[in-house]
Here is the input.
Amino acid sequence: MKKTLISAAVLMVAMTGTAMAGTLETVKERDALQCGVTSGVPGFSVPDDKGNWKGLDVDVCRAVAAAVLGDATKVKYIPLNAKERFTALVSGEVDVLSRVTTWTQTRDTQL
Here is the structure.
């Protein structure tokens, strides 16, 4: 759980500055947040039998959508595995990444 909270904090710090301005404008124009989550880890992000996503990572996405768009339901959840997560974030496939991620010097300097 600590790693997830740290990951969310790192992500928010990483989104500051000019990159955030571009992403923020894109999210507002689209009127929806594209949020990368795990591909199904109970407690973090998993869809129920009706397709409603639940978990801590999902709640972070909802909080961002509520803060940016004024509506916590304006989120599209995109399940990503460990190999796909950074590619999706860097390419813009997702606006924010809310999933288990460790903080490393390599990621901090190269991504």
